[in-house]
Automatic annotation (TrEMBL):
One Pfam family it belongs to: Flagellin_N
Family indicated by similarity: Belongs to the bacterial flagellin family.
GO cellular component: bacterial-type flagellum hook; extracellular region
Protein name: Flagellar hook-associated protein 3 FlgL
Subcellular location: Bacterial flagellum; Secreted
Example GO biological process: bacterial-type flagellum-dependent cell motility
Keywords: Bacterial flagellum, Cell projection, Cilium, Flagellum, Secreted
Region (Disordered): 21-46
Residue ranges constituting the Flagellin C-terminal domain according to the UniProt record: 340-421
SUPFAM superfamilies in the cross-refs: Phase 1 flagellin
Native species: Ectothiorhodospira magna
Major subcellular site: other
Biased composition (Polar residues): 23-32
Organism superkingdom: Bacteria
Length: 422
């Protein structure tokens, strides 16, 4: 076999180029810290790497979603807490207004302060997040949810929906609550007037000093079974001797059995005793003071209303004053308002509790994602990352190989047949 000078040179160059390519690949591995630089390096490992990288990116996206949800929920929680503080202030003012030393003028001042608090609550209801979106507008996040209507009352312009965000492949969390939920207009957490089951109100033509309590429920099933005959009227009258008595009438003016002072059920009329409990159909109310002949109190099932509705009703009563008819109408309105405010505050606490529950869920899921990401990255590192000790040793060996190839080439290129011709 004949070997030409050209062939020897070509073999030497190819050897050096191959050694340089091997060194270059090892240098790339050392600079990137990765063992797999292309799929051909390890086809199986490359597939696993892509799968793990995809899973890590997905998990990190869920973490970003969780961070967004946490930011919105914390803002909502702080805002609802501020609304609750406003409600507490209103309750304090209402108790103050119920003092017998108050006059129409001082109650008017109290009503004015309550109006200011209502304005503050409306502004809190229009809170925006860092992206400039209204957090209590439902899906209408770019529309101001609360505004003042033509009647001077606060109205809600958002919807009852709320966006959700995925915080895991199988778990979603609401980013907040619609304003109708927070302020009790509607939905599963609708706020009811009165004591939450039924509401009482004095007839506008009453002339006596009778003040009715907000009432309690003794048998909810019995009440619900008889709401079809509501509203009920607690009617007072005088007997032939001028003694005050009462009876309860349904919506068809049929007498209803009540528990009288003697503890026995009777359709009435029943002699009136100041402060004695009046019970019928699973509910109980008390009337104090002295109602006049033909005075009446209306008792009917509770209806949905918002926090703003309840506060405006209170303000109207305070601003209406006594109108020459004594303090009884105002006292009745304040008594009902105090009960409704307790329900409002409990409602706000309930909404805030649901926000806190979602916050806990997000925080728990974020902790789980952090652990999962660490585990996935550790496994990915075992598959993809470089063993530096092995790579450095290999690089040193490749350097020696390249130097040997270069020195061999230098020696070979000096060979020539002319050296043997004399």
């Amino acid at each position: 076999m004949r070997i030409s000078t050209t062939q020897m040179f070509q073999n030497g160059i190819e050897t050096m180029q191959r050694k340089q390519a091997e060194m270059s690949r090892t240098q790339n591995q050392l600079s990137t810290g990765r063992r797999i630089l292309s799929p051909s390096d390890d086809p199986s490992g490359s597939v696993q790497t892509l799968q793990f990288e995809s899973r890590i990116q997905q998990t990190k996206q869920f973490q970003r979603n969780g961070a967004l949800a946490e930011q919105r929920l914390r803002l909502a929680e702080v805002t609802i807490a501020a609304i609750g503080d406003g409600m507490q202030r209103v309750r304090t003012l209402t108790v103050q207004a119920n003092n017998a030393t108050q006059t129409d003028e001082t109650r008017g001042y109290i009503a004015l302060e309550i109006r200011q608090i209502i304005q503050e609550m409306m502004e809190l209801g229009n809170t925006k997040d860092a992206n400039g979106e209204y957090i209590f507008a439902g899906n209408q996040s770019h529309i101001q949810p609360f505004t003042v209507g033509s009647d001077g009352k606060v109205i809600y312009q958002g919807d009852g929906e709320q966006r959700e965000v995925s915080i895991s492949p199988v778990r979603k969390v609401r980013l907040g609550d619609a304003g109708s939920t927070v302020f009790g207009d509607s939905g599963s957490q609708a706020l009811l007037n009165g004591n939450g089951v039924f509401t009482v109100s004095p007839d506008g033509d009453n002339t006596g000093s009778g003040i009715i309590s907000s009432g309690t429920v003794t048998d909810i099933a019995a009440w619900e079974a008889n709401t079809a005959n509501a509203p009920y009227r607690l009617a007072f009258s005088e007997d032939v001797d001028g003694n005050l008595q009462y009876q309860v009438l349904d919506d068809a003016d049929n007498p209803v059995d009540v528990i009288g002072a003697d503890g026995n059920p009777t359709p009435g009329p029943v002699p009136y005793v100041d402060g004695t409990a009046i019970s019928f159909h699973g509910i109980q109310v008390q009337v104090t003071g002295t109602p006049a002949d033909e005075d009446e109190f209306l008792i009917e099932p509770a209806q949905p209303h918002s926090v703003f509705d309840g506060l405006y009703k209170l303000v109207d009563a305070l601003e209406g004053g006594t109108s020459g008819g004594g303090t009884t109408p105002v006292n009745n309105a304040i008594n009902q308002a105090l009960t409704e405010m307790d329900n409002m505050m409990e409602h706000l606490l309930s909404v805030r509790a649901t926000v806190g529950t979602r916050l806990n869920a997000v925080e728990s899921q974020n902790s789980l994602h952090a652990e999962q990401t660490l585990q996935l990255e550790s496994t990915l590192s075992e598959i993809r990352d470089l063993d530096y000790a092995d790579a450095i040793s290999r690089f040193s060996l490749q350097q020696v190989g390249l130097q040997a190839a270069q020195q061999t080439y230098v020696q070979v290129q000096r060979l020539s047949l002319f050296d043997y011709l004399r």
